[in-house]
Design brief:
Strand order of the largest sheet: 3-2-1-8
Largest sheet: 4 strands, parallel
Radius of gyration: 16 Å
Structural class: alpha/beta
Distance between the termini: 22 Å
Number of helices: 9
Number of strands: 8
Helix content: 40-55%
Oligomer: single chain
Shape: globular
Order of helices and strands: HEHEHEHEHEHEHEEHH
Length: about 210
């Protein structure tokens, strides 16, 4: 199974902010215990790159990606640490070109028709819709998707278990968000809360997609 197939099968992408890299394995295990086998570790903190390494070493076969990738340099470093996919908040041509040339799945943020057209021309068929709560939530994404039936979206930002069902539709490739692995729960060591959030989300997805 390819990386993209694994993400599509999971349908859920926990977006994880790590302040202490030593807590990464526990966070990864908590996500796995909740029935999700994907983790997107953001580069928003100095611990991000080390956390990617630690997550890759964690047992259980979790698929590790890098998020908030803003430069080509960080993209290359994240991959060298073990990241299997790259997520960026906006469209960066250098990052996209590098990833496509090296068969690395990349999901840039695209929230306008122009950005989606640029992504299509670059050879992409999946983009991140971020931040979803700012750009019209599910209704905004659905309206944007209408002229681009060949594109699928990863809505992220403002999604949680209360509104998750709204984002489950045919043109959604997966749904990402920090609610699945809350930063405060990592820092406080409340890994059971992370497992519970993932379990609830998996149940919602399975029931909605029947």
């Amino acid at each position: 199974m390819t990386v993209k197939e694994k993400i599509a099968e999971s349908y859920l992408i926990p977006v994880v902010v790590i302040d202490d890299a030593e807590k990464t394995a526990d966070a990864a295990h908590a996500i796995l215990a909740g029935g999700v086998n994907i983790i997107e570790i953001t580069l928003r903190t100095e611990a991000g790159l080390k956390a990617i390494e630690n997550a890759c070493r964690a047992s259980g076969g979790i698929l590790v990606g890098a998020g908030t990738v803003l430069t080509l340099e960080k993209c290359k470093e994240a991959v060298s640490r073990g990241a299997s996919f790259i997520v960026s908040p906006g469209f960066d041509a250098d990052i996209v070109e590098h990833c496509l040339k090296n068969d690395i799945p990349v999901f840039p943020g695209c929230v306008t028709p122009t950005e989606i057209t640029t992504a299509l021309k670059a050879g992409l068929d999946v983009v991140k819709f971020f931040p979803a709560h700012v750009y019209g939530e599910a209704a905004g994404m659905k309206a944007l998707a209408a002229p681009f039936p060949m594109i699928k979206f990863i809505p992220t930002g403002g999604v949680d278990n209360l509104n998750l069902t709204q984002f489950i539709m045919s043109q959604v490739f997966a749904v990402g968000g920090g609610w699945l692995c809350d930063r405060k729960h990592i820092n406080s060591g409340d890994f059971e809360a992370i497992t519970d959030a993932c379990k609830t989300a998996v149940k919602i997805v399975n029931e909605t997609r029947k």
